[in-house]
Write a structure and sequence with these properties.
483 residues, alpha/beta, two-stranded antiparallel ribbon, 21 helices, 7% strand, disordered C terminus
């Protein structure tokens, strides 16, 4: 227990502390922006980010990953808030948490392994593009000072690590640029222009919506959507952080943790959230590796709201835009561009389509879902190839050697491989280069045997591997072993 505590919480406390502070500063404008998307007060997003980050640091399965209010989730909330009010959003958040916890108990996390690498790459690249595009709005009507401060931020972010890595360069950039802006009284867009921040603690609050079946029926469609979008984004982000840190994580525990976090958040005036790849990348690149970094991000966010809201509102957006530009550049898989001509064309198409759908719809779950479905269709098309070769034995027996997978998608093609009327009296079907997968495949074999028996011809099945033999014998087809 002590070793686990040290590994997950205290392996690098200084780096986790500084990384968490950096993330907290970058969380504020994001939380405010996502609140606006959802049509709620900025404090709803800020309270959600605080609650989710703190709870997930304890209950989650992926140390160093940041969870908070997100744009993908906020996009699904606007209609509910507009039609029924914010109290129904709190109910939806609670129900979302319950659904996610149940799915975590059902070990849904294993299904992340069914997402192909091409879809994962497309997800990452699309998210990098969305992060970059989200910054463009801050340049509308901006003067040269905005660009100068952005350039200065990027110089510090990329230049400071050449001299020292004692502190996160992104944190130094935010502090330096905020100080310069305040001392020189520069006329720049600040965090305060995004929305007002109230210095008040989140308090326990029972949603004001009626406690009834009607209320549940209203919020359930939204909660189901929120639950699955949150799980998909969280699992994909966890996988990316796994790769960045070269460590493993418990995906089912992460889903349960997301459920607990959203359930509690709904009682403290927050909206549903999930893992954030942008903030998680900031955390990891700033040195965050343990749960402490996520906890500090949440706690320091509340500290900023309570004690330093006046200062926080003076942070120039140019500095935070610079940090997010760094995130988008660091997140994008640049190797995927040079590999487009090297990897199978189908994988390239899947990646490009995933990126296109996510960027066009601004919906990560939709893009990933489309990518997975397209990959499944391509895989099904490939695996549905089946052919046979013919050889003859000295005793006049005709041998059909089947190559490919025998399942529901190839059963008709299998039945068509044989020349029933013109074949000799003895037939052998060799499955040494094939595998029998399902009941449809066994039915196809039965049909072939039946056709030959009708013509008074003897069929022998040879070369079955153990799994195929067990399946055939269990279903009831008489299979004869051969040499």
């Amino acid at each position: 227990m002590a070793q686990k505590l040290k590994t997950t919480w205290l392996a690098s406390p200084k780096n986790d502390l500084l990384a968490g502070i950096t993330v907290a500063l970058a969380l504020i404008p994001e939380a405010i922006a996502f609140s606006i998307i959802a049509g709620v007060d900025p404090m709803v997003g800020l309270y959600a980010s605080f609650c989710i980050a703190v709870i997930i640091s304890i209950a989650g399965g992926r140390p160093a990953m940041i969870s908070a209010a997100t744009g993908a989730m906020a996009l699904l909330m606007g209609t509910l808030v507009a039609q029924h009010g914010i109290e129904y959003l709190f109910v939806a958040t609670i129900v979302t948490g319950i659904i996610q916890f149940i799915l975590g108990m059902l070990k849904l996390g294993r299904f992340i392994t069914f997402i192909p690498h091409s879809v994962m790459t497309g997800f990452v690249n699309a998210l990098a593009i969305l992060i970059f595009m989200a910054q463009l709005v801050h340049f509308k009507g901006a003067g040269w000072m905005m660009y100068a401060m952005l350039a200065g931020t990027l110089v510090i972010i990329y230049g400071l690590p050449r001299f020292t890595r004692a502190v996160p360069s992104a944190l130094v950039a935010i502090i330096v640029m905020t100080t310069v802006s305040m001392l020189m009284g520069l006329d720049l867009k600040t965090v305060g222009d995004m929305g007002s921040i109230t210095s008040a603690l989140p308090i326990f609050h029972l949603p004001g919506a009626p406690f009834s079946l009607d209320t549940l029926m209203i919020v359930l469609p939204y909660s189901i959507g929120l639950a699955f979008v949150g799980i998909i984004e969280s699992l994909l982000t966890a996988t990316i952080v796994d790769e960045f840190t070269e460590t493993k994580s418990d995906k089912n525990k992460e889903i349960r943790g997301q459920g607990i976090a959203n359930f509690v958040t709904g009682f403290f005036g927050g909206m549903a959230g999930c893992a954030m790849i942008g903030q998680s990348v900031i955390n990891v690149k700033s040195g965050g590796r343990g749960r402490l970094s996520t906890l500090v991000a949440g706690v320091f966010l509340l500290f900023l709201i309570m004690a330093l809201s006046d200062v926080v509102q003076q942070i120039p957006m140019a500095a935070l835009v610079g940090v997010m530009v760094m995130v988008s550049v660091g997140t994008f898989d640049w190797k995927s561009l040079t590999n487009l001509g090297k990897i199978p064309r189908s994988d390239s198409i899947v990646m490009i389509i995933t990126v296109a759908i996510v960027v066009y719809t601004d919906n990560l779950a939709l893009g990933v879902g489309a990518g997975v479905m397209l990959s499944a269709v391509i895989f099904g098309w490939r695996i549905a190839r089946l052919h046979s070769t013919v050889n003859w034995r000295e005793n006049g027996t005709k041998v059909y050697t089947i190559t490919g997978q025998l399942f529901f998608g190839t059963m008709s093609h299998f039945v068509e491989q044989f020349d029933y009327n013109n074949d000799p009296d003895r037939i052998e079907i060799d499955f040494s280069s094939s595998h029998v997968w399902d009941h449809s495949a066994v039915t196809a074999i039965s049909k072939v045997i039946s056709k030959y028996e009708t013509l008074h011809k003897k069929v022998s099945i040879i070369g079955l591997n153990e799994e195929s033999k067990v399946l055939i014998e269990r279903v009831g087809v008489a299979a004869t072993s051969g040499h």
